[in-house]
Amino acid sequence: MSTPTMDDAAKVLADPQAYADEPKLHAALTHLRANAPVSRVEVPNYRPFWAITKHADVMDIERNNALFTNWPRPVLTTTEGDEMSAAAGVRTLIHLDDPQHRAMRAIGADWFRPKAMRALKVRVDELATTYVDKMLADGPECDFVQEIAVNYPLFVIMSLLGIPESDFSRMLKLTQELFGSDDSEFKLGSSNEDQLPALLDMFGYFNGVTAARREHPTEDLASAIANARIDGEPLSDIETVSYYLIVATAGHDTTSATISGGLHGLIDNPDQLDRLRGNLDLMPLATEEMIRWATPVKEFMRTAAEDTEVRGVPIEAGESVLLSYVSANRDEDAFTDPFHFDVGREPNKHVAFGYGVHFCLGAALARMEVNSFFTELVPRLKSIELNGDPEHVATTFVGGLKHLPVRYSLR
């Protein structure tokens, strides 16, 4: 059994600003993978946790969902945030363990199966064309994130839920406030309590959706959630709102971050853009590489149900581990030349969607959206370059670029 380690480099994982400085973040994570792949982190305002930075260890923990549970600490937040989340009673899919997780997941599963995705593809392709046309009309410059990347997947996921288009801007504002609570541009204040109005606004809105769909069921995912039953009983208000919350937020911000991060990867690697332009059959592989490259979900947490060890380091029952997806997806032992953006990378066993029973419910939809957008954009793109400095969201959970100023020419 190896000696438990505590490496100061691991503190970046509890520093939202570090995720806005990718060179600093990746330098720290590269050091940790080589020198302290399992490192205890103790920093002010956070409960202690173990940082897991190697791809193989992340996969092992994800596989063993009985030993490493999602509840009670599914994501890294401050101690105050942990307490506020517990008090609010939010129980989304990422908070649940089996058998509750399996029963809740089944409610939305059919909406993300291949048959449903084939039916949705026409709409996704139409929206991809709409937003590439918007780039053409608004060019030759734009902030790609704010004008294109945040809106395209928002339209897709809101259409799936059946939310009226007149409410899309409200949903965008709320998702940015919830996931951008550590970022000075998006956060509502300096404490977790300042984010409570956004959460309550989201609760109020979706409680209204539930009431409407129960009175008048429709053919959309929101109606499926509102009218679902487990063991013969309808979902409680907190359960329905929690379900909407995870679909609306995770289904939007993650795809937005992948599309903007993918375009940034192509701009920084013009040889890969030329390669993709010359062979669109590479698009499925390019899509996976964009997802790996952006890794929009930075981490998930798990809690040990009993005493165990990871890579020889003892983890006591009740202690938390942080699964650093962003580190695992740059692991030199899992990927050849991991810091090279390669649109033909194969194999590409990234963990951006998680693994095991908690594998991302909307993975097929995210892949479709990324594929459809770049299948429309790349053949029409004559030139593109940065038109200013890209900026990343400060976060410890979900995020990516918040500004990507570009200059381009389209046909």
TrEMBL record:
Family per UniProt? Answer: Belongs to the cytochrome P450 family.
Give one Pfam hit by family name: p450
**Stated name of the protein:** Cytochrome P450
Q: Do you know which Gene3D superfamilies this protein is assigned to? A: Cytochrome P450
Question: Which keywords accompany this UniProt record?
Answer: Heme, Iron, Metal-binding, Monooxygenase, Oxidoreductase
Query: Known CDD domains for this protein?
Result: CYP142-like
Which GO BP annotation is one of this protein's?
cholesterol catabolic process
Q: Which cofactor does it need?
A: heme
Q: Which domain of life is it from?
A: Bacteria
Please provide, alphabetically and separated by semicolons, the GO molecular function terms listed in this UniProt record: cholest-4-en-3-one 26-monooxygenase activity; heme binding; iron ion binding; steroid hydroxylase activity
